[in-house]
Design goal:
79% of the residues lie in helices and 0% in strands. It is mostly helical. Helix 2 runs antiparallel to helix 3 and helix 3 packs antiparallel against helix 4. The longest helix is centred in the middle third of the chain and has 92 residues. It is rod-shaped.
């Protein structure tokens, strides 16, 4: 008599747990014992009933273990996918922060160069004004036909130019501080966004 086990029996047989395959083999062994003409059928039926209960328990336990194993594998895959996603996001944020930092450094360098040029130009103007306002001669010629004008001393001119220079330097320092504060705010916002993403996509929020 030919035994019809259906299509893809080998693949299906290898996919079931080892305990289930052993239970099926035990069942076939009992059937073989039943075909023995010298065996006691009533005794076989009693023993088979007990064996069937034990076999069903083994099969149920084996599939429960298989289900738990599959669930654990799925959990591990989800965890790995989450870690990979977080790693990709961290890399993207790191690249963004690096690009942002480079942009801020370039902007800061340009501002520094501009301020240095402005300071150099201011120094040149101070020197030019100083050269123009030299000390008056000891015996100046006075034109009494014109109204007398209020004289401006060199010290007053230099003091005014120094005030302008200090004011420009303070404005430059203010611009630099504003650029640094803006850069720090952008980095803090990027860090908060990463923390929120991690909490949202992990079990920490539970």
């Amino acid at each position: 008599m030919a035994l019809n086990v259906g299509q893809d029996f080998k693949q299906r047989w290898l996919q079931v747990p080892e305990a289930v395959r052993q239970a099926f083999l035990d069942d076939l062994g009992r059937i073989r014992d039943l075909l023995n003409p010298t065996g006691d059928v009533q005794q076989w039926l009693a023993a088979d009933q007990i064996a069937q209960q034990a076999s069903e328990q083994k099969i149920e336990t084996a599939y429960a273990h298989l289900k738990a194993e599959l669930i654990e594998q799925a959990r591990i895959r989800r965890q790995l996918n989450l870690e990979k996603s977080l790693e990709t996001k961290r890399a993207a944020q790191a690249a963004y922060a690096e690009a942002l930092q480079q942009d801020e450094l370039q902007h800061f360098s340009q501002q520094t160069t501009t301020l240095l040029q402005l300071r150099s130009q201011l120094d040149q103007e101070i020197e030019a004004y100083t050269a123009r306002y030299q000390q008056n001669p000891e015996h100046p010629s006075i034109d009494y036909s014109r109204p007398h004008r209020l004289a401006i001393t060199d010290e007053q001119i230099l003091s005014e130019l120094e005030s302008v220079r200090i004011r420009l330097e303070l404005e430059a320092e203010t611009l630099i501080e504003q650029s640094v504060e803006a850069f720090r705010a952008k980095l803090q916002a990027a860090a908060q966004e990463e923390i929120a993403y991690i909490l949202q996509n992990s079990k920490f929020s539970d």
